């Protein structure tokens, strides 16, 4: 359910007042703490030009993906808020995360966003910027609050042929430019490019037991008894390509389409990847519930992948683009070796 902001001061006016109050309260010491306090920066984010006179001091991340990216870049002291936590924050971020105010446990409204007096807003997906959520990017631009969207969510605005991982790495580099943290952002992108390269080392040797390309179904969630799987537009399709497999639902032009168990059975995948979302706590989220659903279905339970336990469990949140996704890519590459799909 979406929560609407209460009628009152318009979002644009309220943010303008908050931003003005924030700027007058910024001290010389605060400005000196920035990596590059006097440098201006300009970037393109999802078709919109964003300009900065100085690195942001009060950034708000509207989702967990954006939050963890900023924490990985060491920017917690320049964050004024976070929202929409889906799972537990990993141990390596917990100390930094504790310094950041939570403005909303779920999706933030415009009222909650303006209470943080942001000078920059970051989101992993464009659908967080709507009138009944945090406000549109146009509303934020009107009060000079730049709104960033991950390049992964708007590939049409980027170079043709750029992979989802490369779009993700470009996010790090763009954010590094904005915050004056290019070195740290560049190092992170290089480290993760190396992980991607390593995961793809054996792609040419991947083969199913019949000699063809191994196929995989990614089971993200089970809701009201129906499976949600990775379609052709999400990150799992790219993960599959890197390791030499084929996403069995690549022909469906959605990130996470709802399908039927009969459709899963008809694709007859060589192996199945289960996204464990047990920390989110919804029915059907845990890996155990998904295993039980497959075992209880009269058709899917007969699949060789289920009978022979050719099932890989990964953190569900890492199947969506994030700073953690290369971890699951590595798990996938290793598991394919263990299951005998790399020769």
From TrEMBL:
<comment type="similarity">
    <text>Belongs to the bacterial solute-binding protein 8 family.</text>
</comment>
<feature type="domain" description="Fe/B12 periplasmic-binding">
    <location>
        <begin position="58"/>
        <end position="343"/>
    </location>
</feature>
<feature type="signal peptide">
    <location>
        <begin position="1"/>
        <end position="25"/>
    </location>
</feature>
<dbReference type="InterPro" id="IPR050902">
    <property type="entry name" value="ABC_Transporter_SBP"/>
</dbReference>
<dbReference type="Pfam" id="PF01497">
    <property type="entry name" value="Peripla_BP_2"/>
</dbReference>
<dbReference type="InterPro" id="IPR002491">
    <property type="entry name" value="ABC_transptr_periplasmic_BD"/>
</dbReference>
<protein>
    <submittedName>
        <fullName>Iron complex transport system substrate-binding protein</fullName>
    </submittedName>
</protein>
<keyword id="KW-0732">Signal</keyword>
């Amino acid at each position: 359910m979406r929560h609407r902001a209460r009628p009152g001061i318009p979002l644009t006016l309220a943010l303008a007042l908050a931003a003005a109050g924030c700027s007058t309260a910024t001290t010389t010491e605060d400005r000196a703490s920035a990596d590059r306090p006097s440098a201006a920066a300009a970037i393109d984010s999802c078709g919109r030009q964003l300009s900065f006179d100085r690195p942001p001091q009060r950034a708000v991340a509207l989702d967990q993906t954006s939050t963890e990216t900023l924490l990985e870049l060491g920017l917690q002291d320049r964050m004024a808020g976070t929202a929409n936590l889906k799972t537990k924050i990993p141990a390596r971020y917990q100390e930094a995360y504790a310094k950041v105010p939570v403005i909303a446990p779920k999706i933030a409204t415009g009222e909650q966003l303006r209470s943080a007096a942001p000078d920059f807003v970051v989101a992993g997906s464009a659908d967080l910027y709507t009138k009944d959520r945090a406000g549109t990017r146009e509303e934020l631009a009107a009060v000079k609050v730049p709104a960033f969207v991950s390049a992964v969510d708007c590939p049409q605005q980027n170079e043709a042929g750029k992979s989802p991982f490369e779009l993700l790495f470009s996010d790090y580099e763009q954010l590094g430019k904005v915050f004056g943290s290019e070195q740290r952002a560049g190092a992170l992108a290089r480290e993760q490019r190396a992980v991607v390269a390593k995961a793809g080392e054996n792609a040419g040797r991947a083969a199913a037991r019949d000699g063809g390309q191994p196929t995989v179904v990614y089971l993200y969630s089970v809701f009201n008894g129906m499976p949600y799987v990775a379609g052709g537009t999400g990150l799992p399709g790219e993960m599959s390509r890197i390791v030499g497999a084929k996403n069995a639902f690549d022909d469906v032009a959605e990130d996470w389409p709802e399908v039927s168990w009969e459709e899963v059975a008809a694709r007859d995948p060589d192996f199945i990847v289960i996204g464990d979302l047990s920390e989110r706590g919804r029915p059907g989220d845990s890996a155990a519930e998904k295993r039980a659903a497959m075992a209880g279905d009269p058709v899917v339970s007969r699949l060789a992948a289920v009978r022979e336990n050719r099932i890989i469990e990964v953190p569900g949140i890492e199947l969506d683009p994030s700073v953690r996704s290369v971890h699951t890519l590595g798990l996938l590459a290793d598991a394919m070796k263990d299951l005998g799909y790399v020769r």
